[in-house]
């Protein structure tokens, strides 16, 4: 392959998609891949969705970009849609997940800097195997050394705790604690749902000490698990939430949602973004909301998730040497493997034209577009079975 001018932070991959059709990707030589990765939980309406394309096209022809220094009817309309279906009262739009988490961190800190707050409370408790993005604050929030190496010094103000260990979290709460930052279902960490007791316990601790419960739903949010946001499974509301990925259906869009109380420090002039809330992004977000923010769509995701999971449970029984268990919720599923998952993910992609995503060390993520149906599930199992039957662990290089 010729040398690429792209900074080589990603693998030089021979699969180079140039077109998307519903649940398939087509690469430069016309090879079709079944896409059960969805751009890592982004393309929830699949590829080439007419409603999404039409909304972006119409908006592009009308008004592509305008400064946030002017009023934004498009932004107000999408923010109102989000407020109507969530715990939140107020929304700040960003262009990515990391920026949404950055905004959430700033919102949590600013809450305590308010005149009614306790200005000593500057630290967020964050959790093992978390992934919050690749900016300086978001890598600092994650305790993963491999993400830190070469980029120190990190930002202060993050205290690491074992994921899903409520007693450990309780023991870390002190006079400097501002709140908790947690993924209700860890994505990059290997599709690990938090327990009910943990989520409820963090909410109770936050209430007891006037702390902010900040949820990172960048990967698990926006209908992926069969609820609009995953925390609804737990009956536990956050104070602040970071959203992205699915919310734009492929258009770069993120959002930080908050209650009015939690956002009390985010006053005029304290935060901003040139592109955040751009009319094109608002059109994409609105088209996504039109498609997914209704009970019928969410019920369908739940039902499809149950069907896919049941089939996966049955499937892994045929390959006990490869697979351990299935975990996740809705259409955010992970196959816990008994081997390192990356070589198997590469094998499925290169030899069976099936896109999945590796996570953690031993999880294969299955993240189909939410519009996938039985035909795509059948194709998925054909490819997965052929892949499992033909897999041999490559020799170490
Ligand atoms: N938080 C979570 C939970 C994520 O999964 C990701 C992306 N994988 C991010 C934050 C960062 O999002 P982005 O890459 O859009 O900055």
Report on the structure:
With 397 residues, this protein is an alpha/beta fold. Helix content is 36%, strand content 18%. A hairpin with a 4-residue loop joins β2 (24-27) and β3 (32-35). The chain binds 4'-deoxy-4'-aminopyridoxal-5'-phosphate.
Distance between the termini: 20 Å
Q: Rg to the nearest angstrom?
A: 21 Å
Low-confidence blocks of residues: none
Largest sheet: 7 strands, mixed
Helix content: 25-40%
Please name the fourth-level CATH homologous superfamily of the largest domain.
Type I PLP-dependent aspartate aminotransferase-like (Major domain)
What class, by secondary structure content? alpha/beta
What is the number of helical segments per DSSP (H or I, 4+ residues)?
12
CATH topology of the largest domain: Aspartate Aminotransferase, domain 2
CATH class of the largest domain: Alpha Beta
The proportion of strand residues reads: 15-25%
Small molecules bound in the structure, each named once: 4'-deoxy-4'-aminopyridoxal-5'-phosphate
Overall geometry comes to globular
- Give the helices and strands as they follow along the chain: EEEHHHEHEHHEHEEEHEEEHHEEHEEEH
- What is the total tally of β strands? 17
Total discrete domains: 2
Q: For the largest beta sheet, what order do the strands appear in spatially?
A: 4-12-11-10-7-5-6
Task: Quote the average pLDDT.
Answer: 97
* Architecture (CATH level 2) name of the largest domain: 3-Layer(aba) Sandwich
Instruction: Please state the oligomeric state of the protein chains shown.
Output: single chain
Cofactor: pyridoxal 5'-phosphate
Binding site for pyridoxal 5'-phosphate: 97-98, 131, 216-219, 274
Family: Belongs to the class-III pyridoxal-phosphate-dependent aminotransferase family. ArgD subfamily.
Protein name: Acetylornithine aminotransferase
């Amino acid at each position: 392959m010729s040398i690429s001018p792209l900074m080589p932070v990603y693998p030089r991959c021979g699969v180079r998609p140039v077109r998307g059709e519903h649940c398939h990707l087509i690469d430069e030589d016309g090879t079709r891949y079944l896409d059960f990765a969805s751009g890592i939980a982004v393309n929830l309406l699949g590829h080439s969705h007419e409603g999404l394309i039409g909304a972006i096209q119409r908006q592009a022809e009308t008004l592509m970009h305008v400064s946030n220094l002017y009023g934004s009817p498009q932004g107000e309309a999408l923010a109102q849609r989000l407020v109507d279906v969530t715990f939140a009262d107020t929304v700040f739009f960003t262009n990515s997940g990391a920026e949404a988490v950055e905004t959430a961190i700033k919102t949590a800190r600013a809450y305590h800097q308010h005149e009614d707050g306790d200005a000593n409370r500057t630290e967020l408790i964050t959790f093992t195997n978390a992934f919050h993005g690749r900016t300086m604050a978001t890598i600092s929030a994650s305790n993963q050394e491999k993400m830190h190496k070469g980029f120190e010094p990190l930002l202060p103000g993050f205290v690491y705790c074992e994921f899903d260990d409520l007693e450990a979290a309780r023991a870390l709460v002190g006079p400097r604690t501002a709140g908790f930052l947690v993924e209700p279902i860890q994505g990059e960490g290997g599709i690990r749902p938090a327990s009910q007791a943990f989520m409820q316990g963090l909410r109770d601790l936050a209430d007891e000490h006037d702390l902010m419960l900040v949820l990172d739903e960048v990967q698990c949010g926006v209908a992926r698990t069969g609820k609009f946001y995953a925390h609804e499974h737990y009956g536990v509301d956050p104070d602040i939430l970071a959203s992205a990925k699915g919310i734009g259906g492929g258009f770069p869009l993120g959002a930080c949602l908050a209650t009015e109380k939690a956002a009390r420090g985010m006053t005029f002039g304290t935060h901003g973004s040139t592109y955040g809330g751009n009319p094109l992004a608002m059109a994409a977000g609105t088209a996504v909301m039109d498609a997914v923010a209704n009970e019928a769509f969410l019920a369908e995701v739940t039902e499809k998730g149950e069907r896919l999971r049941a089939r996966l449970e049955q499937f892994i029984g045929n390959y006990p040497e490869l697979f351990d268990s299935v975990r996740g919720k809705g259409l955010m599923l992970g196959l816990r493997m008994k081997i390192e998952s990356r070589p198997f993910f590469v094998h499925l992609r290169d030899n069976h034209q099936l896109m999945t995503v590796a996570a953690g060390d031993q999880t294969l993520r299955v993240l189909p577009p939410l519009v996938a149906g039985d035909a795509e599930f059948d194709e998925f199992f054909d490819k997965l079975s052929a892949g499992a039957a033909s897999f041999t662990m490559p020799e170490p290089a």
